[in-house]
Amino acid sequence: MTMVPTQIRPGMRLLPHPGARPLSLIVTCPSAPRCVPQMRHIGGTALREWGLEALLGTALLLISELVTNAVQHAAAEEIRVSISFGEDLLWLAVDDGSPGLARVEHAGPEAESGRGMAIVEELSEEWGTDGPRTWCVVRAAESGAS
């Protein structure tokens, strides 16, 4: 089975790919705070078009946390968000051009930030980083989507 890539930018409508599995989407946006709600919107649109409404809550929170982390630590002017679904797995990845590795921090109760990757670790089946790209996987079957 081949991947069906779709390049869209904020503000463009995602066209569905009927019957195409796995599904894939790659979007770039400026490394700026406004990118976070744009990527949530685009990710939500993709999941709805692909019939994965059951994953929306978890996936949108993960997208927010990954993109926020990338915006805060980006080494490039743009970040790239990849969303793929196949074999009952939703794969989310954000590439920020940074050579640093994302890590889970244990923020104190008074801390105003520092919980993003802990949220990613808790909500995803698996997560990792290879420097510029941080990714996580959510199993659709556990959420009732497929």
TrEMBL record:
Its organism's taxonomic lineage begins at: Bacteria, Bacillati, Actinomycetota, Actinomycetes, Kitasatosporales
Keyword line: ATP-binding, Kinase, Nucleotide-binding, Serine/threonine-protein kinase, Transferase
Q: Any idea what this protein is called?
A: ATP-binding protein
Q: Name one GO molecular function term.
A: ATP binding
What the entry lists under InterPro entries is as follows: Anti-sigma-factor_SerPK (IPR050267), HATPase_C_sf (IPR036890), HATPase_dom (IPR003594)
Pfam annotation, one family: HATPase_c_2
Q: Does the record carry Transferase as a key word?
A: yes
Q: Which residues form the Histidine kinase/HSP90-like ATPase domain?
A: 30-127
Q: Which organism is it from?
A: Streptomyces boetiae
Where on the tree of life does the source sit, at the highest rank? Bacteria
